[in-house]
Amino acid sequence: MRASKPLEQVADPRELPRLALIPAPTPLLPVPALGHALGGPSLWMKRDDLIPFGFGGNKVRGLELIIADALETGADTVVTGAGPLSNHVRATAAAASFAGLRMVAVYWGTAPARLEGNHRLSVLWGAETRFTGESDRSSVDRALDAEARRIQAEGGRPYVVPRGGACALGAIGHVLAVAEVMAQCAETGIDPDCVLMAVGSGGTMAGWLLGSHLCGVRWRVEGVTVSRPAVEARQRVAALATEAAERLGQRWSLAPGDVTIHDGFIGAGYGIPSPEGESVLALAARHEGVLLDPTYTAKALAGYRALAAGGRYREDETLLFLHSGGAPSLFVGRDGAP
Predict the structure, then answer these.
(1) Known catalytic residue: 86?
(2) Among 128, 238, 246, 258, which lies 20 to 30 A Cα-Cα from 231?
(3) What share of the chain is helix, strand, coil (3-state, %, to 5)?
(4) Is CATH 3.30.1330.10 correct for 59-165?
(5) CATH fold label, 7-57+167-331
(6) Which cofactor does it need (predicted)?
(7) pLDDT number for residue 7
């Protein structure tokens, strides 16, 4: 690896309390057939969708630290929220159940007519659900505090996890992922020029930027926003990365202008499949046997295809795409579509 150093020589997140949910590194694999179909440089994929706990996905990485912290503080109830089909809520429900904690999930909107996808899995893992009755996603933020106060008034000990798991500990889980990928790259002999990922709540990219800085790795870290305008996403990522650095005792800050996030690939809106994403989803399935999800990774990889076609990446580069999971979204309301 170019100009890299072991994470433990700088700031070791392994010293933080951690609930072991990921028993081994997830695969780092070449996807040449998909790369050829999409065009652009040599393409590799980090398969965090294959994390074996809680239906997988890289939200589990942050939860190893978040749930451990909840246990350390003596909490008996985890309170978090997002949309009904949230990967974060599903993974949190699984981790809370595993740790013996009560879980309350606060969703925006109203209860759907059908219990499916991540919502079904969250309930299966014992999550108690509440709905804000508002379509505004930020209504969850207000409701989380209200729910925590209610639980406390009833004698409970709530631990609030921000919407999407976007907090310092959540981001630090992805700092550990950087060290994991560094070791895998050294073992396989690849030297990525760029690491690309979907950006929603921002915790994953914040952790990758911080981890890459701490380890002195010179690959570019880039994101494709799938949730909100890139300007807002950059601000969130920068703030989370700075907060995570402070939690690790590092005097380092990140400015929004130093965060590279590509816009223009959200389509009709967050959580709504796009034609471009559906096309790439089918290519990944048919060329590599890899299942992307329509909300995050399919849109991000569709963004990559458009950016590569526009000359963003050189043919002689190596690009690593982070598959962050989300397969349960494939089993939701797919009328007539493959």
Answers:
(1) yes
(2) 246
(3) 45, 15, 40
(4) no
(5) Rossmann fold (3.40.50)
(6) pyridoxal 5'-phosphate
(7) 63
